[in-house]
Each structure stands twice: as structure tokens, then as C-alpha cells.
Amino acid sequence: MKKKGGSEESALSRALSILSRRDYSEAEVREKLLSRGYPEEEVASTISRLKELGYIDDRRLALFSARYRLENLGQGRRKVWEYLTRRRIPREIIEEVLDEACREVDVVERGVALLERRHARRPFDILEEKGKIFRYLAGRGYTPEEVRKIIERFEEKERGSR
User: Fold this and answer.
1) Would you say residue 7 has pLDDT above 60?
2) Which residues contact 109 (CB under 8 A, 6 or more apart)?
3) Cys bridge to 69: 15, 59, 75, 127, which one at CB 3.0-4.6 A?
């Protein structure tokens, strides 16, 4: 493969350069290498070698991303699923990783914290704003069941703090 400067560069070197900036899924690396004109056989052997070396690990990437998004970004399961799907992580890995991450992170408590931050500056009547809250949390990727639990727990906390 010819680079712009005229020197040759192996698919492995190119992939390592790509992976030096951030983690990519196997499918993303494959797509990047193929789009640069590397032959399929070379790409396949490069991907295989990168997996052996531990540079590509879709499960590790998915688990880290899921935990981060659930815990730090306050996203629900559905939103994390969409993100991992966009990253082209295989469905089986997504299901396994989301189950594991949701056991580790209290999704309902994260949703309550999200509501507390959102409504910290102004008092509000939860009965009047239930529809808005539901849409807000659903938009963040929470399931209807999770939203119901979040609202219940939030109401309990509000009653307890009065």
C-alpha cells in the first residue's frame, strides 16, 4: 500500500497508528483499513494479530463504554445499546456487557441523581411534571419500567426531605 509520501506502510502499522489515538471496535478498524485500500486478506490477518496482542477487544471496549455511559453520563440501557450498535459491537457482546454493567451500576439511583441535578435550582410539582420527566428520562435511554422506579424513588426522597 502506498502512502501519500510514496513510502509503503503495512496494514498493521496503519492499524496501530489508528489505535494509538483511541479504542476502536474490530469492525471500525476493518472498515478504516479497507477504506484505505488494503486487501481483505491483509486486513483479516492484521485484525487477527491485533486481537492476539490485545489491542482490539470488543468486549473490553463495550464494557468500559457501557459502565462509563451508565454511571457518568446518566444514560439508560437503551441509549447505551444504541451507542454500542453505532460502534459496530456484535449484538451478543452488547447483551452480555449491558447485563453485567447494569448489575454493577444502580441505574435507578443514577436516574434519581439525574433528576435531582436537573431540578436542584427550582422546586417543582412532580405530579404536574410527570409527563415531562418521563419524556426526559426516556430520551436519556431509560425503559418505562426504570422511569417508573426512578419517579417512585425520587418522590420518596422528596417526601423524606420535607
Assistant:
1) no
2) 153
3) 75
